Amino acid sequence: SYLFIFATVLFVASCGDISSSQNGEDSDDENISEEDQLNNKIVFTKENSDGGSIIFIMDPKGNNTNQLTENTDWNGFADISPNATKIAFHRLGEGEPEQIYTMNIDGNNKEQVNNSEFVDMIPVWSPDGEKIAFTREDDTNGRNIYIMDADGSNVQQITDMEGDETASDWSSDG
Known about the structure:
The chain is mainly beta. The chain has helices at residues 2-15, 34-39; strands spanning 42-47, 53-58, 66-67, 74-80, 86-92, 99-104, 111-112, 119-125, 131-138, 142-149, 156-157. It is globular, with a radius of gyration of 16 Å.
């Protein structure tokens, strides 16, 4: 997970200062339809010095950056749904295992979609937006890939190999 955060920080650093891009001044956006603006977003995680992390969203030019999560928990591995209306992410709150959450693309309506005793992390939307693949870690079986419906129901283990399996992804045809 450190490599992902490091890569995210490098990408953000190459885009310039986050605070300077929040003014929304991007003349090219005026010529792009509202639907295309919603479908052209990059979601990323910024780690804080206190060990927490915040999820942000911005356009591909590094402009129009908006903070989506609070600074109180560790939030990360965000993934935008195929229809660009939701973001899946995992959150580590104090005294609880990492769990999968979703929120609207604007950061509203954060909802925990699963409630397991295990660490559930690194969610990835299926191409049709109906399912989420994720990594589950437990003391007995290590890390394995699971899928669940987007509402958190019908959790199914997909891998059971020796060693740890993480960071799944879907093919474009699901």
